[in-house]
Amino acid sequence: MRASLLHPGGRMTVEHRPVPKPGSAEVLVRIGAVGVCGSDSHYLRHGRIGDHIVSEPIILGHEAGGVIVDVGDTVSRTRLGQRVSIEPQRPDMASRESRRGRYNLCPHMRFFATPPVDGALCEYVTIGETFAHEVPAEVSDEAAALCEPLSVAIAAIRKAEVGMGDSVLIAGAGPIGLLCAQVARASGVGRIVISEPDSLRRDMAVNFGATDVVEPGAGALPGGDVDAFVDASGVAAAVVAGVRSLRPAGRAVLVGMGADDMTLPTSVIQNREIVLTGVFRYANTWPTALSLIGSGRVDLDAMVTGRFDLDEVPAALDADRTPGSIKAIVYPGGVPESVRFESTSRDSSAWRPFVNPATHVDKEVQQ
Q1: Which of 62, 81, 173, 245 has the fewest CB atoms found within 10 Å of its own CB?
Q2: From CA 180, how far away is CA 186, in angstroms rounded?
Q3: Which residues, at least 6 apart from 266, have a Cβ–Cβ distance to it below 8 Å?
């Protein structure tokens, strides 16, 4: 199979690798589409994220979907031909964290595209059968891939514990911030404020669920009156401003990756009894993600602003530097003619409204 490799020092090549064979409880997936994450671009530009260093060639990409083309000995052959979205995790299900249902925190986790584990910017991957989630026909290949960042947003809004009539401030109108806004809207949140310094992204945020859009430092941030704050920026100043925006007993959820340490307003946290927590990936989110997409309350297709083939991966990883870019998609098998010239500027204001607060998926999102 063909695979895109990042080498130490930032060089990228397309090479041939053996097609992997599924283990007894695994499936082999022919990759249809792969979303580009900021972490992929970071590895290209900096060669590391924290303690994870690109010290040997690695296949990037962890937002992926495709079709099951082979199965292991213990997997039903009825799964052959299924379209799936890949949850790119290989936890030790016997670990204490996994047994508690928090498998995302498993200390023995092997996660796609995190050195030394290869990812999905290639033609085939294997994954445990329970982490290959069947997608319905109405979910596009691109949306199947983008279930992964949507899962981050679901995990964040769950941690924020907001629901019908509540208010939330989101710092950052990048892909995760925009997805958090969509999930918040699907949860019935009444006021969704997005803080973003870039004027073009502020304009886009209105089409992705924001009821108010503000520029940081412009004096327009709500002071002490929002129920929850979600940081999707990693910027220390944004975190401090967000914590100060919370009403008593509000919740602050840190999603964006920034500095290892920052100074926080501890007196505000103590005196208002603010709950401060983080989000590390996700657990048990894919059923909710697929329900939100299928019901039309989250639109992932509208977030795609660039499409590339495997030979164009370097350009895909740099697409985030293009003004107006939200999500780049790589097609390892080549960009299909059906989407090659498709407009990526569709009007997101046509989404179906949130009308039924009693449905199962709404309860899941609010948990």
Answers
A1: 81
A2: 10
A3: none
Residue entry with tokens 């092997």:
110
Q: CA 110, 112, 115, 117: dihedral to nearest 10 degrees? A: 70
What is the Cα–Cα distance from 45 to 341, expressed in whole angstroms?
29
Closest CA to 174 of 149, 156, 151: 149
Q: How many CA atoms lie within 13 A of 311 on its CB side?
A: 2
Q: Which of 312, 347, 346, 351 is nearest to 328 (CA)?
A: 312
Please provide residue 212's backbone torsions phi and psi, each rounded to the nearest 5 degrees: -140, 140
Spatial contact of 313 and 12, defined as CB atoms under 8 Å apart = yes
Q: Find out whether 88 and 64 touch, Cβ atoms under 8 Å.
A: yes
